[in-house]
């Protein structure tokens, strides 16, 4: 369906598919999504643990990672809806004595500065906020110059930033 207003968003389908492909290459085949929503690669059911309505912080990630360990036997990767959830998940896995990435790999979303400095450093999906802002400004400028034009939707590509939390070394 056509949007009712101009929309600029990161390509979330690409984000999940990029994470899944990367995990497969790294030898992980039982991922669990920590976050809301039914995101999955076409043809693949992706197990999900919802941290709770609007709960996207580290404490939620800590709890969700521990739930994933008990509710999803054999889980070997966590795809987290935010870097904050992922950083909490790293702590939750550490508290449970789980080696990252040896037993469970972790991918976040957002490319926060903290992701570079966590132990292990966090692999993340970068939503390219600069491109999101440029596209939003372009749509806003076009809306001011042509107020009656049809609403437009722009999907901005994301990129994987590979770090230690998904490395192959320990598998």
Please characterize this protein's 3D structure:
The protein is an alpha/beta fold. The protein has a single domain, classed as 3-Layer(aba) Sandwich (Rossmann fold). The chain is 37% helix and 18% strand. It has helices at 12-25, 58-71, 83-95, 113-117, 129-145, and strands at 7-10, 31-34, 47-49, 77-80, 105-109, 123-126, 153-156, 159-161. The N and C termini lie far apart (44 Å). The relative contact order is 0.21.
Compile the SSE list and pairings.
Layout: E1 7-10, H1 12-25, E2 31-34, E3 47-49, H2 58-71, E4 77-80, H3 83-95, E5 105-109, H4 113-117, E6 123-126, H5 129-145, E7 153-156, E8 159-161
Parallel strand pairs: 1-7, 2-3, 2-4, 4-5, 5-6
Antiparallel strand pairs: 6-8
Helix pairs in contact: 2-3
Name a few traits of the molecule.
single chain, elongated, two-stranded parallel sheet, 171 residues, 37% helix, 8 strands, 6-stranded mixed beta sheet, alpha/beta, Rossmann fold
């Amino acid at each position: 369906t056509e949007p009712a207003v101009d929309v600029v968003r990161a390509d979330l389908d690409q984000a999940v598919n990029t994470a899944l492909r990367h995990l497969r290459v790294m030898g992980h085949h039982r991922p669990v999504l920590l976050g809301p929503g039914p995101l999955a690669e076409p043809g693949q059911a992706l197990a999900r643990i919802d941290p709770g309505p609007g709960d996207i912080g580290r404490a939620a990630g800590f709890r969700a990672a521990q739930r994933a360990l008990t509710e999803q036997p054999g889980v070997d990767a966590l795809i987290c809806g935010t870097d904050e959830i992922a950083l909490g998940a790293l702590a939750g896995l550490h508290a449970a004595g789980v080696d990252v990435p040896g037993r469970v790999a972790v991918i976040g979303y957002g490319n926060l500065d903290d992701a570079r400095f966590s132990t292990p450093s966090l692999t993340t999906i970068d939503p390219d906020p600069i491109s999101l802002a440029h596209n939003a400004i372009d749509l806003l400028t076009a809306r001011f110059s042509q107020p009656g034009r049809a609403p437009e939707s722009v999907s901005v590509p994301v990129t994987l930033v590979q770090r230690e939390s998904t490395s192959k070394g320990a598998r």
